[in-house]
Amino acid sequence: MKKWFTGSLLVLLLQATTAIAADPCSRAGGWLPAGMDHLRRGSYDEALSALDRAVAEAPRCARAYYGRGLVLDMTGRHDRAIEEYSLTLQEEPGDAAAYYRRGLAYGRKGHFDRETEDYSKATALAPDIEQSERGMERWEDREIEDYTRAIAEDPQEPWAYYNRGIALRLKGHAERAAADFRKALSLDPKHLWAVYHLGAALRTLGRLDQAVEAYSRAPTIDAGFAWAAYNRGLIRSRQGRFAAAIEDFSSALERDANHAWVYYDRGFAYLKQKRYALAIADLTKAAAIAPTFPPAYYWRAAAYSAIGQKERCRRDMQRAARLGNPAARKWLAARP
Asked: Are 175 and 247 in a shared domain?
């Protein structure tokens, strides 16, 4: 009997070991589902904390790395998100979603070559990845319905208003989205991402002063939040307030010094101020980070032209033209 019991126990242990080997995430326990649930609610700090525990318990769990990548992406920490998606792919080399999301993160950083490479890998693995990952109409409608039900069950839940606002914004309902973000903030005044998306919705509606006010609120919640400063700078640049825009772009670069778009937009603002040396320096940095981004070469050519460096101007126009910039092609056609 004892021998049978010992043998049975050994079988059970072997079965358990085999199950763990088959699913590396089984050791994560409840931390993985808890983290993903916090992520769906927009509770990013709690999500990251739970997923950190999941990784600690199950260091071969690709889904935990992927979840951390999503959290970091959604909170603007794209460099770290790229690292997490890379760890996902180390464990699951055939994960099309990880390639797709890493490509998005590369694009947000201005690394367009890497973005294209990852998109190609994602679509080779899953030709319908664009629709399945972005969800499109059906996903957005389902999200709106789900969060409307959640609000009916508990009208004091800020995350439900926030997430419904995101879905409404994706559907193009900026007015209703702004109302939901405001409601979320009335329930949780320190909801950083509700502030950010409120600013984005107001910008879509053309209420630029209100958008600037919303973005200005973000640093009072998190002084290291670069995206609010950057987007406020875009609005100020659009309004022709280039000195204020440059301050915002500089503030954003203090928090993320490897962002091609911020260098590009600050370089453009310097160009408008006729501060050509500074414009050239920033546009050169933008081109170094994103070598396939044609506007960086086009506007650097304009800066070179303004200071009489005709050969450098022409070389940059040629680069911009090769990358498909129609204005550069027109400029070259007029000067054969």
From this structure: no
Provide DSSP, 37-52.
HHHHHT-HHHHHHHHH
Looking up tokens 């999200």 gives 143
**Encoded tokens for 313:** 């101007």
pLDDT digits (tens, 9 = 90+) for 172-212: 889 999 999 999 999 999 998 899 889 989 998 999 999 99
Are 316 and 255 found together in one domain?
A: yes
- Say how far apart CA 179 and CA 26 lie, in whole Å: 41
Where are the extended beta strands (E) located within 149-307?
none
The two structure tokens encoding residue 236: 């100020």
Distances (CA, A) of 172 to 6, 123, 141: 64, 27, 12
Cα 12–Cα 18–Cα 22 angle in degrees, nearest 5 = 145
Q: How many folded domains does the chain comprise?
A: 3
Which tens digits make up the pLDDT trace of 288-326? 988 888 999 999 999 999 999 999 999 999 999 998 889
